[in-house]
Amino acid sequence: MVNCQLPTISKCLTLTGPAACALMLALASLQVYGEDIVFTPGDIIDWEPHSFAGETRYELVEVDGRSAVHAICEGGTASGLFLQDDVDLNATPVVEWEWRVDDTFSGNDETTRAGDDYPARIYAVDEHRIRIWSTRALNYVWASEKAQGSDWANAYQRRAHMVAMQSGPSEAPGTWVTERRNLKEDFQRFHGRDLDRINAFAIMTDCDDIGEPIEAWYGEIRLMAE
């Protein structure tokens, strides 16, 4: 099922505003392998941009012999690429993705608003347009200071929960990392919700609170069965 709507999403992940049909290009090249759904960097670059503070630059590039979305954040910007579409968590509860971060911020407290910036993050959202207070989100982040494996409530909005997949600069710059999480289990664990589906995905690299430049690279995002 394709829900052809574009969410207006504040940085605190309160989703409101009118719908807009903006997914056709992003979905046109969507690849499906059996029950798995694969978003290539070529798909992701066509997701709808949304700005919170200026424009983080996203470019489709070839790097390390592969296609990637290169995110370049400078001048205190914060914007992401968003896709709203229903994901059946009973059929594809697992999300797997590839990313690369060579450097991170230094000395920021990510539990505060002043430190709520991340070189790379992936959103998964259980959206409720009418009862917006019921919206919940998971943010899988490449943290700068918080320990790998730690989790905490977002500094702007406790309805968004942060999970540190990686922490600090890469020990080997230029190395790609593959991550894997069970969305269904994580929404139950962190939000107490046994969900059959979620409604939105996004990638985001932001530097508006800290004001220092940062960059990251995103590869494929795959939705998979167990």
Task: Give an account of the 3D structure.
The protein has one domain: Jelly Rolls (Sandwich), CATH 2.60.120. Helix content is 8%, strand content 46%. It has three helices and 16 strands.
* Share of helical residues: under 10%
The arrangement of helices and strands along the chain is EEHEEHEEEEEEEEEEHEE
User: How many H/I helical runs?
Assistant: 3
What percent of residues are in strands?
Answer: over 45%
Distance between the termini: 20 Å
| CATH C-level name | Mainly Beta
CATH architect. name: Sandwich
Radius of gyration, rounded?
Answer: 16 Å
Shape summary: globular
Determine the mean pLDDT.
Answer: 86
Quickly give the structural class.
mainly beta
CATH topology: Jelly Rolls
Q: Report the strand count.
A: 16
Biggest sheet architecture: 7 strands, antiparallel
Tally of structural domains: 1
Note poorly predicted spans. Answer: 1-34
Oligomer: single chain
